[in-house]
Design brief:
- The protein is mainly α.
- It folds into two domains: 53 residues, no CATH class; 112 residues, Arc Repressor Mutant, subunit A, CATH 1.10.10.
- The strands form two sheets. Strands 1-2 form a two-stranded antiparallel ribbon.
- The longest helix has 31 residues.
- It starts with a strand and ends with a helix.
């Protein structure tokens, strides 16, 4: 245990002090007070401050990556890859393509989409004859959603467009760089469960 006086902290950058000030105050208030100094675990203060700084840096890194990736993958345009569909509509079509039978509620839960927004998307798809709905035999309130043959064609075209977009992105990369990107994405998916 280190014995430190209040004035014996080293000079630190201003932003570091803002982050660690609360931690130091909490730690100091829990320590025994002597006449001239507080007995504190300097390492404990330092590691808590470092943890907080690391979390703040991670938040900023994630936000920066999201800004970069949404532009890279054309996620900010109203129409995804110059098609008539938004990126959200494409994702719903993609999920319908993967599942032979799915309900609207399952899509909502899976994609974390607002119920009314999903309803508008599905009405548009039904109007454009991209999906069909069939009521459950046991419960008429639930409907099974399926892609129509036209919906399947549209989904296939969108998947091909996306695959081409990614092929163009990775074409100048070496196999080692492709593996690094793939591994980094796997790490992200492993650490963040959706």
């Amino acid at each position: 245990m280190a014995v430190i006086g209040l004035n014996s902290f080293p000079r630190l950058p201003f932003d570091y002090l803002l982050v660690t000030e609360t931690i130091c105050m909490i730690s100091i208030s829990r320590c025994k007070r002597t006449k001239k100094a507080f007995e504190c675990k300097l390492i404990q203060i330092s590691s808590k401050g470092d943890d907080m700084i690391n979390k703040i840096n991670t938040i900023e890194d994630i936000r920066e990556f999201n800004r970069f990736f949404t532009v890279l993958m054309d996620g900010l345009n109203l129409r995804y890859l110059d098609t008539e569909f938004s990126i959200t509509e494409f994702r719903v079509l993609y999920e319908l393509n993967l599942k032979s039978e799915i309900t609207a509620n399952q899509l909502i839960d899976m994609l974390k989409i607002d119920k009314s927004y999903m309803s508008r998307i599905l009405k548009k798809f039904e109007k454009n004859q991209l999906i069909s709905k069939e009521s459950f035999l046991t419960d008429k309130r639930f409907q099974i959603l399926r892609l129509t043959s036209q919906g399947q064609e549209v989904a296939d075209q969108l998947i091909n467009l996306t695959n081409h977009q990614i092929e163009v992105l990775i074409e100048p990369l070496s196999m080692e760089q492709c593996c690094q990107i793939s591994n980094a994405m796997k790490t992200i998916m492993k650490n963040f469960k959706v």
